[in-house]
Design a protein that fits this description.
alpha/beta, 5-stranded mixed β-sheet
């Protein structure tokens, strides 16, 4: 199968579904109050002392079960970026100078604290950059989770990766790990570094910021703004379509 090398159809569809006005910049929201700190209660009971077994009894041997490590949520973490950055998006998606350029691979930490790696070129993909304090991102999460809860699904054969970026402890819906867990967001979430290195490598401008990747790992399209779930499904169908020669 040859991958689509003309972007006109995808760009036309994006123009129809991308809500460009519904995007956030870097300073659109007022700072939220800091989360309330819950005081840990002091222990009031002493553990009960068990009687030692009599000398004539042999204690039963119990196998030691290794403790299972539970990942701890993280909000920012170091990342590794493989490949050249895409650079700025330019004046419009149609004139994006990075179109057809290989997109960088990513390795870092999932928002639940476990390792997460994404390698472009395995199959078509979309990456959505989300900021916890951004009202458009908050609306995007609510709309997608409601759409999925209603029994809808995205097309098979594509990946959807989320990147939490521009994290600010003094703004709304911090920490983002709790925000997305409360919202029931079902997609993999990679956390950006404290310096927002992933966002910089992908030329992020505003949030939510969408990046669409052909199945061969090259850039299909980038743009800022909300995308309705039905529109995203259509865009995925275009990425899965065979090439035109």
């Amino acid at each position: 199968m040859k991958f689509k090398r003309t972007v006109h159809r995808v760009v036309a569809l994006l123009a129809a579904v991308l809500l460009l006005a519904a995007a956030c910049g870097g300073n659109d929201d007022e700072a939220a109050p800091a989360p309330t700190e819950v005081e840990t209660p002091m222990a009031t009971e002493q553990p009960t002392q068990l009687a030692a077994p009599m000398a004539t009894e042999q204690p039963t041997s119990v196998a030691t079960v290794p403790a299972t490590e539970v990942p701890t949520p993280v909000e920012v973490a170091p990342v590794q970026i493989f490949g050249s950055p895409l650079g700025p998006i330019g004046e419009s998606p149609e004139a994006d100078p990075a179109f057809g350029q290989p997109v960088p691979g990513l390795s870092g930490t999932s928002i639940d604290g476990s390792p997460l790696e994404w390698t472009p070129g395995e199959r078509p993909a979309a990456i959505v950059f989300l900021a916890h304090w951004c009202p458009a991102c908050q609306a995007e999460v609510v709309e997608f989770t409601s759409w999925l809860a209603a029994g809808n699904n995205l097309p098979e054969g594509v990946d959807l990766l989320s990147v939490v970026t521009l994290v600010d402890p003094d703004r709304d819906y911090y920490p983002p790990s709790q925000w997305l867990a409360d919202g029931g967001w079902p997609f993999p979430v990679l956390v950006d570094s404290a310096d927002n290195e992933i966002a910089a490598a992908y030329g992020q401008a505003g949030t939510p910021f969408w990046v669409f990747v052909f199945g061969d790992g090259t850039l299909a399209l980038r743009g800022s703004g909300r995308i309705p779930p039905e529109g995203l499904a259509e865009l995925f169908d275009q990425l899965l379509a065979p090439g035109e020669g």
